[in-house]
Design a protein that fits this description.
The chain is of the alpha/beta class. The protein has helices spanning 53-60, 83-93, 109-119, 126-136, 151-163, 181-198, 209-212, 235-246, and strands at residues 9-20, 27-38, 42-46, 68-73, 76-77, 94-97, 169-173, 202-205, 217-222, 225-231. It contains eight helices and ten strands. The radius of gyration is 18 Å and the shape is globular. InterPro entries: AAA+_ATPase, ABC_transporter-like_ATP-bd, ABC_transporter-like_CS, ABC_transpr_LolD-like, MacB-like_ATP-bd, P-loop_NTPase.
């Protein structure tokens, strides 16, 4: 007997087009991108500089408007929402991890982690809090301020802050860009673990083939189009694909 597992798609883009500026100054950053991101999976977006990675992520996350096409998160078409609805959707369904950790300096690690839930007026689920803290390995640092933590620990706080509201998807933009390779590897391992153990969905933009190799799948952009993808990537298969794209 064979069993089939249904792969749910957390985020879908159809015909996604983004043009900055007008007339002679127009920049076609995305030229009709069709892509889906599986739920409970870790997907990396790569491509040469200027290929449209950040633009794609910003459009997928509702941080930027699209020129044409559709983006759906779960069962909501976000390209049809007004600003107020988008703000709510980002708060309730989307988590972010940026290159700069964006922690509030006067709050402890624990207070930073809990802040988005407090702003949303939602209760923390103690069991989830314990699991998240366990997953990112921060138990003994909860009372520390960001300035008392290493860069890697600060980024782990930022990852925990994104995980704690159980968003449908976390978008990570170069999350290891400010970290040395050891701290970067730690943060990537925690992202990986949060997918495997907490069923989190993660979409990450990165320049680094090593970072991309932590993902389940890597999609590649060139000149605003999705041109290739690699399943179960290794640093070498990612590098080979990138070099072929840049050739
Ligand atoms: N606000 C903007 N106004 C005008 N052009 C923009 C704007 N943002 C991005 N672009 C242009 O859109 C194209 C795609 O940029 P984007 O930042 O998405 O690429 P990227 O792949 O993330 O690049 P990098 O790897 O260098 O960060 C580039 O040509 C860029 O110059």
């Amino acid at each position: 007997m064979t069993t089939t597992t249904q792969v749910r798609t957390a985020v879908v883009a159809r015909g996604l087009t983004k043009v900055y500026g007008e007339g002679d100054a127009a920049v076609h950053a995305l030229r009709g991108v069709d892509v889906g991101f599986a739920a409970e999976a870790f997907t990396a977006i790569m491509g040469p500089s200027g290929s449209g990675k950040s633009t794609l992520m910003h459009c997928l996350a509702g941080l930027d408007t699209v020129t044409d096409g559709q983006v759906t998160i779960g069962d909501v078409e976000i390209t049809g929402l007004n600003d107020k609805q988008l703000t709510l959707l980002r708060r309730e369904r989307v988590g972010f991890v940026f290159q700069a950790f964006n922690l509030l300096p006067t709050l402890t690690a624990e207070q930073n982690i809990m802040l988005p839930l407090e702003i949303a007026g939602r209760q923390a689920d103690q069991a989830l809090f314990d699991r998240v803290i366990e997953t990112v390995g921060l138990r003994d640092r909860l009372g520390h301020k960001p300035s008392e933590l290493s860069g890697g620990q600060q980024q782990r706080v930022a990852v925990a802050r994104a995980l704690i509201s159980k968003p449908q998807v976390i978008f990570a933009d170069e999350p290891t860009g400010n970290l040395d390779s050891r701290s970067g590897a730690e943060v990537l391992a925690f992202l990986r673990r949060s997918v495997r153990e907490l069923g989190q969905t993660i979409v990450m933009v990165t320049h680094d083939p090593g970072a991309a190799s932590y993902a389940d799948r890597v999609v590649f952009l060139r000149d605003g189009l999705l041109v290739s993808e690699v399943e179960r990537p290794t640093p070498q298969t990612v590098l080979d694909t990138l070099m072929a794209l840049e050739a």
